[in-house]
Amino acid sequence: MNRRSFSRKIAMALPLSQLNYPLFAGGASSMGRNSKSILVKRVVSDFEREPLIRPFGFKGNAMTNVWQTVALMESDSGKSKIGLGTQNVLWSDAKVFAGHSENGGNAIMYAMTDRALQMMEGTSFSDPIVLLEKILPEVYGYGKQITRNPDLRKTFALNALVPVDNAAWLLYAAENGISQFDKMIPDIYRPALSARQKKVASIPALGYGTAMSEIKALADQGFFIMKIKIGAPGNQKEMLEKDKEFLTAIHKTIGHYQTPHTVDGKIPYYFDANGRYEKKETLLRFLEHAKKIGALEQIAVVEEPFGEHNNEHVGDITDFGPRVAADESAHTDEDALTRIKQGYNCIALKAIAKTLSMTLKIAKVADDHNIPCFCADLTVNPILVEWNKCVAARLKPFPELPDLGLQETNGWQNYRNWDKMKEYHPKKNAKWTKSVKGVYRTDDSFFRESGGIFLRSEHYEGMF
Asked: How many CB atoms lie within 10 A of CB 132?
């Protein structure tokens, strides 16, 4: 059975009548009155598996390959566009990852992508954001049924919808004569993306237990902020002791390095716990250890320390020193607002994981409350790096890093075939696709060409 028929078999596991679609009536548009109504005549999906160099571990588990999903959407006018996505089952719902084989979990997410496209065939839309608002509840409900998990995390559905949302945005742009990212974004969301950063930091990601030699090598290459996974395997006591030892080794290895990009000239630490800390008290003990060894002042961000159902206020943590960032628990703009009220004082945006449509809504909420944002990765392909960079280069700077935007990019560290994947990028030779000493130079050409996201990729086009 080929990939396409395989996905169809999974996607049709439930009758359409149980999901009440495709009915997309209503919804207030953010695009203005002149946006064209687009009838979706044809849809197709496909995917490729990309192997990793080594297992990528976090959340107490590890993935070995990543599915690159592709959604084609064609209008009745004959225009067609392809949207790309990168699946990450472990990040979006660790229970689904643990409850299935690795490919089985990916197949479930891909079935949700294909189902979303089926819902859109023969329907019309004029606003990708309203389209997402209409389709998300149905796709999320479908995901709960095929995973048999009533507590499925909403991020799992959003991750599945990334290629669909990207295709919708590109088709919307094509039908309305738009060829630049700035002109595609509705006016109401533009204040949150009003900056024009000439530099964007390239932030590598390091799994827990990464060898100090590798961390030192990255610092020697000029990378001045690194995303480091904490939340080591084991019970909470074992985890804390391992994390403290890891921090001590990191600080001893690179704590003395200097950088021109921070206010104090020191390398900042960015720790991602992926919800592994069960109680605030445990995290405070980690930070007390950081203070004891002289590392606390260099901890810029602790991302997603607690599970999404932990409602503790984190104001005393931010008073202690580092910013506390919400990532996967801020599924939607409403969730982001809840986290802000809990004292979270920065947000990790993921246009490549939660859809551009939802990311715009989250960025607006954060901007309305003067909460700084940065862009986190999902180990995405080179073209999706540019989608993320289009957001990162337009975000207002972090107060602690005033002269540049922030973007995690770790695909180059993890994909076995990264050099080959770069060949699929329509602007593969542009200087803004390459980081130098940990920095992307986002000059006028980057903004003018929108990172090449509006251009066709021969490789992905060739899949259809």
From this structure: 26
